[in-house]
Structure formats: C-alpha cells, structure tokens
Design a protein that fits this description.
This protein is an all-alpha fold and about 450 residues long. The protein has 17 helices and no strands.
Length: about 450
C-alpha cells in the first residue's frame, strides 16, 4: 500500500511538473491565437461556397479561389522559413495576421456590397496564402520557446484546433443563415484581429544563444540560408524519410479520400450524413490530442506510425459501403490516429532540430508534406472513373497500412528517441538508437 501511495505521489508530481511546463500566461496567449485562427480558417470554405454560389458562380470557382491560397502558401512557405530564422518570428506573425485582417475585411466589403468578381476573390486568396507562408514557419520555433513540455504544448494546441474545426462550419452556417456570406468574412477578419492582439501581448523569451541566423545581407545570403535549411533537412534521415513516405500517402490515401468520401456519402446518404461523419472525424481528432497529452512514448514516431494505422478505417468503411454509424466510427478512429501522429511528428521536429534552423526545416517539412496533395486530389476523379470510387477508397485503406509499415521499416524513424525540451545540439550526426541520447539522424 505504501509503495502504491508513493508511486501515485510520484505520478502526481510528474503530472504537475508537466502542467507547469506547458501553461503560462504567454503560452495561453499563443494557445488562444492558434485556436481562434483555426476557427476562422474552418469558417472560410462555407463563406466562399455560399457567397460565390449566391453570386452566380459554380463549384469550379470555389475550387479556384481555394487553390489560389493553397498555391501561394505551398510555393512560398520555404522562403517564409528563411525569414522566420532571420527576423523576429513574433513580428512576422503579427504582420501576417494584420495583412489577412485587411484582406478579409475587404472581402467582407465586396460581399456586403454585392460587387463580387472572381479574380478579385482569387487575388485576395493569393495574398492570404502569401501571409500564411510568412506566418506558419514561425509556429514551430515558438512552441519550444514557450513551453518546456513541447509534447504537452502540441497536444493542447491540437485539441483546441480540433475543437475549433468542429465548431467553425456550424458557426459559419449560422452566420450565413442569419446575416450573409459577408458576415462570415467579417467574422473571419475578426479572428485575425484577435490572433494579432494575442501575439502583440505575448512576451516571447529570447532565443537560445546561436539560435538566430547571422544577419547576412543580399540575395546570395538568402540563397545560402535556403541551402543551409535544405542541408539540415536532407541530413536527417528520419525527417526526409517520413516526408518521402508522406508524398505517397498524399497521392494514394489522403488526396483521393477527401473528395471521394464526400461524393460517395452525399450521393448515397445525403449531406446530413456527410456532416455527421465529418463531426465524428473532428471528435476523433480531439480524442487523439487528449491521448497525446497523456502518453509519453520513448520512440515517438514509432508510436505515431502505429496509431496512424487507424486512418485506414475511414476510406475503407466508406469504400466497403457500410452504414452511416459504421462510417462515423471509422472516421472517429481515423481522426484519433491522425491527431496522435500529428502531435508525435510536430514534437519530434521541434525537439530534434536545432533552434537556429528549425523554422527553415519546418518550412521544408510543410512544403514537402503538402506538395503531393493536389496531385492525389486531381487523380481521384480519373481513378474513380476507371476503377469505381468504392474500389479507389478500398485501395486507399490498404495503402494506408502500407504507408505505416513503410514508416516502421525505416530504422531512423522507428528508432528515433524522444528529446524533452528544445533541441540542444546542432550536429546532424548519425547515432545508433540507445538509452543515453536520442538519435539525431
């Protein structure tokens, strides 16, 4: 009994230490900024669809407006990583939020006035994508500076973002119904105002010595910084190994799953069933984030890859033609697995990569992760026409197992050991997995 009480006391102490390692005034501000921004981001597709359809445009116009943002973001995020390593990440993020506050306020004015021209909406989306490319790389370097418990911080942010993703479309639908699409854009602009205010109030601790890139000038120095980030990315086998596998995942699993699930479920069961399945997916991501707050695996990527197996349940349940409750259950399992993997991956990058190159490496990570998604989405239609949508989804489910197996077969991925706190070393040396130190490459 005494041993049990002692063990419980140690667990409570460890839990308290972990909590103190996450929550502080400054982390709460950053947490709020990320949650509110995600809420606005998930409202945007509803606003674009309702607004453009209301003004006589079709689904292709909605896709074009979204693609303008995605193309700008994917094409420029690597350059944003260089800026984040050279300048103040907080100021860059505030500036990006203020730019998007202005663009979304302009979009709201256009929709309120009834003067909606597609090229203008696409131009606004492109500017938003540029601002996002400047904003996103700094997120990776900010989390380790605000919380010593990086995994706990990522888990908390993932839970908040998942909850916001559940609420966003519903809030947008209410605003469209009671106000207009312009009201959704105005609300979206307000979320950037709140995010910018939180970041303005944030007192970001100074970077560790040597964590800021030297203030080199000129185009040659910028190219040198890009090249250095690429060398750091390429020099870590676990990092580029995951991204290489992830490209296959985007083409064969995620890319076709998103559009084909929507098509199959809406056609066979109606839009309400699709909304229910999406809600189950979001609820699963919340659960996965909560589990990631509790579990502390020694080999994080191995645990994340095992959890990612659960995503196969989503496309496979739809492809197999199961009923709506079974598909919703599959979506919930998929969301939990994807969310847990996301926390393990983000924490590994933020703790294994040295602070002086973290933002650039994260930018390469984001660019590589997203590069093949449009390819998978573009191929989904022709593949469904040739094989049938149900067969493509079943193949996606099987491929999901194969992707997880591929991750586990890479020694540098399955053997990578956790590092608690910010990365302490800038050496990309190859080390064998061992109890004394995490494998860097």
């Amino acid at each position: 009994m005494a041993g049990t009480s002692s063990q419980a006391g140690r667990e409570r102490a460890a839990s308290g230490k972990a909590a103190r390692g996450v929550w502080s005034r400054d982390f709460a501000l950053f947490f709020t900024a990320r949650a509110i921004a995600r809420l606005g981001h998930t409202m945007l597709p509803v606003a674009l669809a309702a607004g453009l359809l209301q003004h006589g445009y079709g689904a292709g116009a909605v896709g074009l407006a979204m693609a303008a943002t995605a193309a700008a973001f994917a094409g420029l995020v690597v350059f944003g990583g260089v800026l984040a390593d050279r300048f103040s990440t907080r100021k860059l993020m505030i500036g990006a939020d203020l730019v998007r506050l202005g663009t979304q306020a302009l979009a709201a004015a256009l929709f309120f006035s009834g003067h909606v021209v597609l090229w203008q909406i696409c131009a606004i989306g492109f500017v938003n994508g540029v601002a996002g490319a400047v904003f996103q790389p700094g997120v990776a370097g900010t989390v380790p500076r605000l919380a010593s418990d990086v995994q706990g911080a990522n888990g908390a942010i993932r839970v908040a973002e998942s909850a916001a993703q559940l609420a966003g479309p519903a809030v947008a639908g209410l605003l469209v119904g009671f106000a207009s699409p312009g009201g959704v854009f105005a609300a979206h602009a307000a979320t950037y105002a709140v995010s910018a205010l939180c970041l303005l109030l944030l007192r970001l601790p100074p970077p560790v010595p040597g964590a800021r890139a030297a203030a080199r000038r000129g185009a040659g120095a910028f190219r040198a910084d890009l090249a250095e980030g690429w060398r750091e990315f390429r020099g870590r086998r676990w990092l580029w190994g995951v991204i290489a596998v992830w490209c296959v995942y985007m083409i064969a699993v995620w890319g076709p799953t998103v559009p084909l699930v929507a098509t199959e479920v809406v056609r066979d069961h109606g839009p309400r069933a699709y909304g229910l399945i999406n809600s189950a997916l979001g609820a699963g991501t919340v659960v996965g984030g909560l589990v990631a707050l509790r579990l502390r695996p020694r080999r994080m990527l191995r645990a994340g890859a095992i959890a990612l197996v659960g995503f196969a349940a989503f496309p496979a349940s739809v492809g197999a033609g199961l009923d709506v409750p079974a598909m919703a259950a599959g979506a919930a399992v998929a969301g939990a697995g994807m969310s847990f993997w996301g926390v393990m991956w983000a924490t590994s990058v933020q703790t294994q990569v040295p602070p002086d190159v973290l933002n650039r490496v994260h930018a390469y990570d984001v660019a590589g992760s997203l590069a093949m998604m449009p390819v998978g989405q573009a191929l989904a239609g022709p593949a469904a026409a040739a094989l049938g949508a149900d067969h493509v989804l079943l193949v996606a489910g099987v491929t999901s197992f194969g992707v997880c197996a591929a991750l586990l077969l890479i020694p540098a991925v399955r053997g990578l050991e956790r590092v608690d706190g910010a990365a302490a070393s800038s050496e990309p040396a190859v080390r064998a997995p061992g109890p004394s130190r995490a494998q860097k490459c």
